[in-house]
């Protein structure tokens, strides 16, 4: 099985730096099922192509699979695995391009951080769902998708198509994102894995999908298939995804156009819970309503879920979304359909890029500021700077801060460490209250604490919220 990655970004040979593989050499990497080789069929200033070829040893594969899936139990020595793309290639890709997947490139760090014109080719991809499913999964990620069904036999067209597709992806995508898309979606399209899926697969999925999975329209299908239809793992993954974005599905049922398997249909007694991110957003909106504020600034707005909800309420007359990430602001604009937004609605909205640890006069003048799941992404030594910017200089009438409650983490099955890899810390309830008390003493605010989500009698709620009010009320 083979995968090719091409670019035309001049000088195209910089692809070798990004992949950490020299274009002038063939490199071999031993895998549990055989040998992976990386080589470059073409490498010049105008176009460079890297190929990952996985040479599968059928005997070694049969000895290591232990018949753990039907694909291998029925045909241990004669099957399509040496020729068709599968989870074998996904695992090899993760191993061979580990640094590239993480976005690390010491020699060309600026290239690792920006989208590049890429073309990816997979000549034989098993796809349970056909070319249409490949289009559905890759197109929302920014790819132009060319998926063509492979006939069972060119000489007998009346036999119809096989379950394989020829897939070509093209688009301006960051290389690390492209590799993570492939790592997750190749076994999803195949709907099979060559190894036993355990709880650590949830961590792998969250790491690879951190920047895109929570907002993918087919995240339910992707999560369910990637975790081999194990409902307990799927529920755990959705709990974790709730920390990444506000669009996680509210129920773990397959989409209406997905053919359900017997082991993917939720049991009759399955409890369908509202995701924590939805509860968090509703809690913030509820408090803003109680405070009867009109002008709100969302500091660290991400992809704009709260901004969108604020716009839907005409009682908020001025709404501002701020984020340090230009990509997040692009997603916000896309979510809000900014280019087609009615003029009166558009007049209430402003979006701009800024860092929350640097004084910015545009932060001032609002009735309320919201820091929803933001502070835990700030390095602790920089928190004092954020406090000064928000509470000391901007000084809104109210500040709403939500952050994970570290004590509640024991209630998340299969969670090891913090909830998100970008969290610099997660506070217990006493730690959060201590921080809030210091902020009040230094900057002249009072504070009220609210639970968000189920308030467990032993460990508290999953999210904790502090509502700060400037002493003296209105203007200084």
Describe the structure.
The protein is built from 17 helices and 14 strands. With 476 residues, the chain is α/β, with parallel strands linked by helices. It has 2 domains: 2-196, 2-Layer Sandwich (c-terminal autoproteolytic domain of nucleoporin nup98); 276-470, Rossmann fold. The protein has a 7-stranded antiparallel β-sheet. A 7-stranded mixed β-sheet has the order 10-9-8-11-12-14-13, with helices on both faces. The radius of gyration is 25 Å and the shape is elongated. The model is unreliable at 66-72 and 245-272 (pLDDT under 50). This is Small RNA 2'-O-methyltransferase. It comes from Rhodococcus jostii.
Integer count of domains:
2
What is the fold-level CATH name, i.e. the topology of the largest domain?
Answer: c-terminal autoproteolytic domain of nucleoporin nup98
What is the CATH superfamily of the largest domain?
Hen1, N-terminal domain
User: What's the architecture of the largest domain in CATH terms?
Assistant: 2-Layer Sandwich
Number of strands: 14
Q: What is the CATH top level name of the largest domain?
A: Alpha Beta
Uncertain stretches of 5 or more adjacent residues: 66-72, 245-272
Helix content: 25-40%
**Order of strands, widest sheet:** 2-3-4-1-5-7-6
Main sheet record: 7 strands, antiparallel
Rounded to an integer in angstroms, the radius of gyration calculated over CA atoms is 25 Å
- In round numbers, the mean pLDDT is 86
Total helical elements? 17
Shape: elongated
Distance between the termini: 68 Å
């Amino acid at each position: 099985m083979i995968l090719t990655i091409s670019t035309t970004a001049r000088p195209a040979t910089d692809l070798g730096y990004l992949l950490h593989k020299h274009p002038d050499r063939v490199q071999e990497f031993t895998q549990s099922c055989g040998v992976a080789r990386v080589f470059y069929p073409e490498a010049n200033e105008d176009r460079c192509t890297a190929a990952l070829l996985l040479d599968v040893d059928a005997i070694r594969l049969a000895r290591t699979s232990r018949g753990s899936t039907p694909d291998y139990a029925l045909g241990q020595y004669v099957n399509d695995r040496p020729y068709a793309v599968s989870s074998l290639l996904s695992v090899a890709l993760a191993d061979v391009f580990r640094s590239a997947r993480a976005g690390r490139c010491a020699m060309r760090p600026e290239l690792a951080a920006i989208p590049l014109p890429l073309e990816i080719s997979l000549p034989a991809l098993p796809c349970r769902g056909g070319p249409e499913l490949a289009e559905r999964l890759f197109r929302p990620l920014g790819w132009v998708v060319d998926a063509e069904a492979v006939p069972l036999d060119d000489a007998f067209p009346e036999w119809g198509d096989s379950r394989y597709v020829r897939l070509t992806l093209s688009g301006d995508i960051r290389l690390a994102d492209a590799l993570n898309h492939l790592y997750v979606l190749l076994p999803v399209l195949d709907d099979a894995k060559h190894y036993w899926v355990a709880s650590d697969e949830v961590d792998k999925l969250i790491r690879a999908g951190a920047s895109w999975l929570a907002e993918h329209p087919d995240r339910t299908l992707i999560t369910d298939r990637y975790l081999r239809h194990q409902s307990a793992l799927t529920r755990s993954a959705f709990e974790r995804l709730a920390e990444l974005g506000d669009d996680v599905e509210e129920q773990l049922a397959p989409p209406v156009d997905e053919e359900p398997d017997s082991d993917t249909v939720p049991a009759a007694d399955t409890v369908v819970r509202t995701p924590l991110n939805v509860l968090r957003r509703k809690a913030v909106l509820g408090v803003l309503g109680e405070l009867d504020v009109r002008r709100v600034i969302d500091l660290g707005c991400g992809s704009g879920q709260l901004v969108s909800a604020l716009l839907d309420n005409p009682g908020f007359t001025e709404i501002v979304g701020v984020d340090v990430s230009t990509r997040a602001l692009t997603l916000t604009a896309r979510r809000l359909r900014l280019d087609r937004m009615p003029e009166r609605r558009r007049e209430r909205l402003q979006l701009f890029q800024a860092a929350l640890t640097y004084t910015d006069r545009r932060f001032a003048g609002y009735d309320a500021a919201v820091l929803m799941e933001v502070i835990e992404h700030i390095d602790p030594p920089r928190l004092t700077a954020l406090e000064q910017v928000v509470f000391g200089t901007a000084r809104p009438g109210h500040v709403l801060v939500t952050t994970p409650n570290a004590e509640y983490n024991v209630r998340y099955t299969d969670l090891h460490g913090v909830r998100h890899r970008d969290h610099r810390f997660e506070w217990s309830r006493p730690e959060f209250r201590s921080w809030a008390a210091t902020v009040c003493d230094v900057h002249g605010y009072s504070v009220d604490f609210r639970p968000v989500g189920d308030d467990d009698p032993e460990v508290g709620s999953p999210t904790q919220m502090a509502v700060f009010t400037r002493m003296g009320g209105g203007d200084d």
